[in-house]
Amino acid sequence: MDGKTAAKPDQAAMASPRRAPSQQRSRERVERMLAAASALIAEQGSDAMRMGEVAERAGVSIGSLYQFFPDKRAIVWALAERYTAESQACIAAALKDVGDAEGLKRAFSELVDIYYRLFLAEPVMRDIWSGTQADKALRELELADSRANAEFLVAVLKRLRPAADPVQLETTAFLVWQMGEAAVRLAISVDRQEGDRLVAAYKRMALRELVGE
Amino acid sequence: MDGKTAAKPDQAAMASPRRAPSQQRSRERVERMLAAASALIAEQGSDAMRMGEVAERAGVSIGSLYQFFPDKRAIVWALAERYTAESQACIAAALKDVGDAEGLKRAFSELVDIYYRLFLAEPVMRDIWSGTQADKALRELELADSRANAEFLVAVLKRLRPAADPVQLETTAFLVWQMGEAAVRLAISVDRQEGDRLVAAYKRMALRELVGE
DNA sequence: TTGCAAATGTGAGGATTTATCACATTTGCA
DNA sequence: TGCAAATGTGATAAATCCTCACATTTGCAA
């Protein structure tokens, strides 16, 4: 009798739209949905975001919302995915041409600052990556992102220290990157002054590890 | 005053029992509720934990559950609070008698291992501290815990490096501690081998920072 | 242009879950 | 013993998520 009670499609594709918008009209509507969700998250946090409110603010019906997003988390995921794609491009660009230790120092420090400022300024990002851990799909996205970013760092390190053990470099880069995210998240949750100190301390620590000494 | 109301006066208290159990009977029932919640969290995660199920498994009515816990999060908070109290005592003890750099190295390394193993073995702890960020009360508990633990570390550092800037030590200890938590959380979310490498790398990094080279 | 299938749009309502409340029972104690 | 406070109960109000049967619009082949 259950019929469709089996609503547990929890495998892959956690986030692809239930249906991809193929017409211009629907593509614009999906944009409006995401914009509405983004605004609501900025105002109240993703947890308090209500699907009905998203639909209303986007000027669509609740049914339309679910036509393109399988569930509530998928909306948050879609926003998160945009942020990571954007920042990955930024990171790749910043590290691409690093050739020596001095260059790494400069580029890394710059990236950390950008990331810190981004978190300070973007409530949506803050919210999404704070709640990360609770959501399996988001956690995986973050891990994948972190690994990808670490790879850019590894590429640089391999150039600077060709003799070093690759596995070691890999581990170091991954750890340094994840800790950077942790440091920034910590920094924004305390007052600005202490936050600045924490970020500065992280930079020192990370660079000591990356460029040795 | 009554026996073990370890909770503080509930002004800001997000989570103190709606009503403190004063009779032996109710104290036992509250224990059963917490035990049931703990088991359910271990099985399915705190998000999937249902209040009705907690009540049923504890052998009490849903009403009784709400008599002692104002809401669902309060149950998770109560469990989290126990863990932090326990671990804080453990940490304080381990760092209490550290007198030199060698001792710090040994004690710190030991603590990280304990923490790592704890997270590997305790699904409840893993769940609680993964979802931390999403819940304001839990986030505050974690920050307070981290600060408290950092204090123990600061006490040691002041003994080892009396000339250092206290604010600097404070910042370093706090950061190192938070990163330890981040490192362990990262380590348990990847395969065991990589996790071990990450924890080892963290230890090296942290100790280099703490005992300076 | 016309007709039609696919894409898209809608919102009432099913299903689930949290939390409350009025009332019943038990306990501690004067 | 009697009674007030503590405790116990579960139907049910309230809040949300998400589905579904049906309506409308669009793209395009004939």
Question: How would you describe the overall organization of this protein?
Answer:
The structure is a homodimer of 213-residue chains. With 213 residues, chain A is mostly helical. Chain A has helices at residues 24-44, 51-58, 62-68, 72-96, 101-121, 123-131, 136-160, 166-188, 192-210. Chain A contains 9 helices and no strands. Residues 1-15 of chain A have low confidence and may be disordered. Chain A binds a DNA duplex (30 and 30 nucleotides) through α1 and α3.
Question: What is the structure about, briefly put?
Answer:
The structure is a homodimer of 213-residue chains. Chain A is mostly helical and 213 residues long.
Shape of chain A: elongated
Structural class of chain A: mainly alpha
As a percent range, the share of strand residues of chain A is: under 5%
Report the uncertain regions of chain A. 1-15
Average pLDDT of chain A, rounded to a whole number, is 89
Rg on CA atoms of chain A, Å: 20 Å
Termini gap of chain A: 68 Å
The beta-strand count of chain A equals 0
The CATH class designation of the largest domain in chain A is Mainly Alpha
Number of helices of chain A: 9
The chain pair with the largest interface is: A-B, 30 and 31 residues
The largest sheet of chain A, given as strand count, sense and whether it forms a barrel, is: none
User: Which architecture of the largest domain in chain A would the CATH scheme give at its second level?
Assistant: Orthogonal Bundle
Per the CATH scheme, the topology name of the largest domain in chain A is: Tetracycline Repressor, domain 2
Fraction of residues in H or I helices of chain A: over 70%
